[in-house]
Amino acid sequence: MAPAAKPAAPINCKLLLIGNSSVGKSSLLLRFSDEQWLPEDESSATIGVDFRVHKMDVKGKKVKLSIWDTAGQERFRTITSSYYRGAQGIILVYDVSNRESFDALPRWYSELETYVSDKVVKILVGNKVDKEFSRQVPTAEAEAFATRMNSLFVEASAKTAVGVKEAFTDVVERIMDIPELWDSAAPGVGAGTKSTTTMPGGGNVNLAEEDEQSGGGCSC
Amino acid sequence: MDDDGAFDVVVLGTGLTESIAAAALAKAGFKLAHIDRNPYYGAAEASLSFDELIQWQDTPNPGFSSFSRSGDTIEQARAYSISLSPSLIPSTGPLIDALVASGVAKYGGFRLIERVCVYDVSGAVKPVPGSKEDIFKNKEISLVDKRRLMRFLMFAAGEFEDKKELEGHTNTPFPDYLKTVFSLNVQMTNAIAYALAYCLSPTDPTLPALHRLRRYLRSTGRYGANPFLVGHYGSTGEIAQGFCRTAAVSGAVYILGREIEGVVPASDPKHIVRLVDFPDPLSCSLIISSASYSSLTRATPVVPPPSPSSPFSSSSPKYPVARCIAIIDRPLSLGDLTVPEAAAEKESAPTSDEAHAPPGAPPVLDTAVIVFPPSSLSDGSSTAAATVLLTGEGTMSCPRGKWILYIALPLPGLGEVPPDPRTSLKPYLDATLALASPTSDPGIPLKPLFSSFYIQQHPTDAPSPLRAEEPVVPALPHLTPASLPPVLALPDAGDAAAVQAEAVFWEAVRILRPSALQPDADEEVAITALWPAMEIREEGEDD
């Protein structure tokens, strides 16, 4: 009954970065998508990182990732509710050398509770392990917390690239294990996580990709 | 951002106008702080979850009053995005242009309105003929009337300004004009005046109505048969958030949920903005504030003159509007009149998505507008038209199997004390509920899961809390864009905001960086467009 997907059509997957200011969210994103590292004196608070598109093959499936950054709106906790719409994976970042950024995590989790379905895949990323000498958050403690929060866990360094690829790949792999997050044929999980393509009937309009309109709609 | 709290501009209020202006200014390179006293984005145009809506109703909001509601809870409360400013977006116009040119369009999805209907005195709803095709197909209109209607629509879609049909009639009430000049009958007059041109009352003058109608007619076909879109997740509020995100990506700083303690003049020509519970004051050369903050800033506001080409003149009526928000769990069936007829004509009709619905199951309407012309209900208004906007799951604003109804009725000429909104709107709600698809037991009337009624005043009519102890600020640069009047035509709020925002943008540039506007300005500093050309992203959208 379900229509066969076009062989080349990648699965769209939206990931979000959240966490306190200066924990290195943008750095993780730039390291992963552009293989770049901006030294600290050059990277002030986030300016200009909106989102990055990244394609990868996971478990034999082509996945088109869009990874969204907070645009600095985490600073005074003013992230827009629209930021969270349609996310399938959340990357929560703290700085292993900054206890405060770890202690702030419960508040970020409670924000997630407000805006996203509990089916959404979460990973806790302890960034800046290159600063091992000034570590303030023990690995075991963070790992236990992640388990309690039903999240994956990894420590990473955007500076040295340790654990970065792993963090993103782990989330996507877990998402692929949960078809209802991305497969329109699977039962939905509530309006917050559905992609627009699963909506009944026609009538959805994507202003940003006007050209696609002609090819949109029913695939029969 | 620097931590010295020094900005070029501080914008107060995150309504749609302010948010568009903030995005444009941040993109142009100005250092900007954007503040809202509410903990949510969108101000009077916000989209709220169900629980936030209840909280909002229980908090004093300048301009809103006379709340009543059926209850405080609903299942899946978080899955709702309820708009405080329900409106339609014409497929061509300033807001769509801004969404596309700024890149904000990519943050959200939109949905085409599926059907527009007029409520007839007889208690039936009639589809509104909005295109040649509709008119040809319609079997209820006589041939003579079809010709008259066609002649009028050709006139309205064209350059009518110098046509003899308009001579001496620019201020004639539009329905009268349609009757006398184009000999249209009452039914067609109602459909054109209220459901195509979205007149608010029988006295709306002809020229502005024709301007609106032409814009809407020219929007038809861009994204589909209907000229109007509605944004996902409550539309206006979500769009305002998109513009705020764009501003943030360009470096704007966002602070929400903090009251402004005051704006004080300093020795140098900078405004100092102090926020409650916020350590450092913000300094800036220019304040842009929505009208609801003007009593705090106490400056002489410089309101940018409306652009002469703007169809959104300040002449929009200043009376209040009664609003109803209702949530229902059965679809409406709005006379699928044209569909079976078209199907009966076989091959000629293009197959629509709806044609794929299994036989026997009528397509479920997700988005629609029902217009009640004046005097269409015996216990309704005789001086104003009511509009009902229906949005369902497809607009991502409510869970599956639920629909939100927004009813709006302007209240012209009712003096200081507006009537009880529930009394005014109940007839319209009941008439709309009576249009619900019948269940297996036809005796069961549709009862909303939730309903709420309230009044929205014209912003300047609303009492604003004056802070007498604040010193009066000398006339430092301060722009206050006019607030969106609550009684704009249903499709006009977003475009009006976009037009205002552009006027504010150019005025702000003139104040902050006049050199950028010199004809011989360096390419580096020159500002020539509201939105800079978008960078082509390397990651091609190659699929």
TrEMBL record, chain A:
Keyword Nucleotide-binding included in the entry's annotation: yes
Superkingdom of this protein's organism: Eukaryota
Residue numbers spanned by region Disordered: 187-220
Database matches in InterPro entries: P-loop_NTPase (IPR027417), Rab (IPR050227), Small_GTP-bd (IPR005225), Small_GTPase (IPR001806)
Keywords, ordered alphabetically: GTP-binding, Nucleotide-binding
Gene Ontology MF terms: GTP binding; GTPase activity
Any Pfam family matching the protein: Ras
Name the record gives this protein: Ras-domain-containing protein
Organism, scientific name: Mycena belliarum
Lineage, opening ranks: Eukaryota, Fungi, Dikarya, Basidiomycota, Agaricomycotina
From TrEMBL, chain B:
Organism: Mycena belliarum
GO MF, any single term: GDP-dissociation inhibitor activity
Name of the protein in its database record: FAD/NAD(P)-binding domain-containing protein
GO biological process, one term: vesicle-mediated transport
GO CC entries: cytosol; nucleus; Rab-protein geranylgeranyltransferase complex
Family: Belongs to the Rab GDI family.
InterPro entries: FAD/NAD-bd_sf, GDP_dissociation_inhibitor
